[in-house]
Fold this protein.
Amino acid sequence: MIKRITIIIGLCFVFYGNPSYAGVSEFKEKLRPFITKYLGEDIAVKFLGEGQGLVELPEIPKINNSATDASVYSRKEDEKIKNIPKDKRGRLNYIFIDELYLATRGAKGNKDQLGRWYNILAQGGTREGVYRALVLDNTYRGLENFKNPISERVVDFASYFFPRFLNKSIKKEALKGINFYTLKRISTENCLSVIDEYLKNDPSKLYAWYAVFSGELAKKYPMVFKSKLRKIEKMSAHQKWAEQVPNQYIKSEVMIKLHQLYNHLKV
């Protein structure tokens, strides 16, 4: 152990302060987890700086279940929900409903509409269940049936997003014939299915997937998101957040971010 720590410190001194060394930034990021593990995060920051906070995108799982599986309405929240005080939980739920309604429908909900969905969450409903109900009802179906083509910017984003985060190939020409609201729903439902597969097999991969998803979107589209958290480009910060919150909160961020981004690219 002492020998390993001595080697790590020696390497730090060799590369620290020598920015001309080829690949020094990449080397520092590879060295960072070992310094953090054996000497602590403070020492790692002292020798290597704050770092880029990069996270490697895990392998995208194959989807084995239906994206419209009705069981999502009855799934129980995980134990992490207990870490959030009830009054704060209520405030967060109301913010979620308000943002989700606007992001999916393109118009703010009135007091009665928002109150209805808020009450569903208060009675034990899931955020995912509320989302699916909103995008599978007659109002959203009407938006999908209405002629609503997608812009070139939306095509470019979907062409990047589907292979990158869903491991699905998609042709630009095929995209141009899809209804805008249908594309938003399909993109989000596929993400929810990917998330469920990670949760079944290895939640740590979900946190990494979410970190890369959030960090890349924040970097590529900084003008879209208003909240400080969503604007953060550092992937490791999103990973840490995902590790600490209930899984439904991760899903709700994916739902809202995707719909907000598509809405921005539409115009």
User: Anything to note?
Assistant: The mean pLDDT is 86. The CA atoms of residues 101 and 144 lie 16 Å apart. The chain is about 65% helix and 0% strand. The radius of gyration is 21 Å.
